[in-house]
Design a protein that fits this description.
The chain is an alpha/beta fold and 313 residues long. It contains ten helices and 17 strands.
Length: 313
């Protein structure tokens, strides 16, 4: 099969189109013909080696954790899916080695869920990591409830696109923080309630109320200032960095949670249902081919994408 692999950590030049033997499904696993994957910021961070101390890995590494495809084979005792069924998954395994930048992948069937029928493979492949990240950050770590107010920092990116929509579906008020060029997208397409252009004004000066939850997807100064925006008893959740002074937060009766998304097929089923109802939609900024992966990585490294970057395989 064709795959994009790296033999060592480094820049985009380390991404090599190669041919390797297709995997065979083991017990409890299924073989999936990948029709599309997507590129996330974590992919280039892995490629550069920024996470090598945190995640067990083995070269050569096929990167990629998002996928949508078709069941083509089943290992012993695999019964959840039939041959030919369309599925999607967040495919991160304990060992980083065999990812989704490839034509085939073998996964435990517990990782998989049925793909939303209403979405193309490219759209579906854009949702597992971002959708699960937003879900676990807002509702598991953040305990967001109807009637509460959430401040979402980095609202126009892949995770932000999911987070704004999921928070609104829950019945929360959403204050979105992003660049001014994304205001129309965040307010009109994603239906946020209020918008702050971080390039022109600091959130602390732009909002006149304390919020129940800050969900930080950008890190940096805005994360460290997040405690100013949160009411006593509120929560700060981040996927981009750690809060420097947890003891200080405890004095203010506020809590901090760092989230690193976990595979969860039942939550994917919930995202599927919301997609089927038309309440939750991905936004794909651009679709690349597998052979154009270096271009896709260059775009995600810019830090200025809107929605997601998909790769058709």
């Amino acid at each position: 099969m064709k795959a994009i692999a790296i033999d060592e950590f480094g820049g985009r030049d380390k991404l090599q189109l190669t041919h390797v033997e297709a995997p065979k499904p083991g017990e409890g696993e299924v073989l999936v013909r990948i029709k599309a994957t997507s590129v996330n910021p974590v992919d280039y961070k892995l490629r550069e080696g920024f996470l090598k101390g945190r995640l067990p890995h083995q070269f050569p590494i096929i990167l990629g954790w998002d996928m949508a495809g078709i069941i083509e084979g089943r290992g012993h005792s695999s019964r959840r899916f039939d041959q030919g069924e369309e599925v999607w998954a967040y495919a991160r395994r304990p060992l980083v080695q065999n990812g989704t930048y490839a034509e085939y992948i073998s996964l435990p069937e517990s990782y998989l869920a049925r793909k939303p029928k209403e979405l193309s493979f490219e759209e579906a492949a854009s949702m597992p990591l971002t959708g699960l990240t937003a879900y676990q950050s807002l509702f598991i770590a953040g305990q967001l409830k109807a009637g509460q107010t959430a401040l979402l920092i980095g609202a126009s990116g892949g995770v932000g696109t999911m987070a704004v929509q999921l928070a609104k579906i829950k019945g929360a008020k959403v204050i979105a923080v992003s660049s001014g060029k994304n205001k129309d997208y965040v307010m009109n397409q994603l239906q946020a309630d209020d918008f702050i252009d971080y390039k022109k004004e600091k959130p602390g000066r732009a909002i006149d109320e304390q919020v129940d939850l800050v969900f930080d997807m950008a890190g940096g100064v805005q994360l460290q200032e997040a405690h100013k925006f949160v009411k006593p008893g509120g929560k700060i959740v981040s996927i981009a960095g750690k809060f420097e002074d947890i003891a200080f937060l405890k004095q203010e009766k506020k809590t901090f949670h760092y989230v690193f998304v976990e595979p969860h097929s039942r939550q994917l089923d919930e995202l599927n249902e919301l997609s089927g109802d038309g309440k939750l939609r991905p936004y794909v900024q651009q679709v690349f081919s597998l052979e154009e992966m270096k271009k896709a990585h260059k775009l995600i490294e810019s830090g200025h994408t809107t929605g997601k970057i998909a790769v058709s395989i």
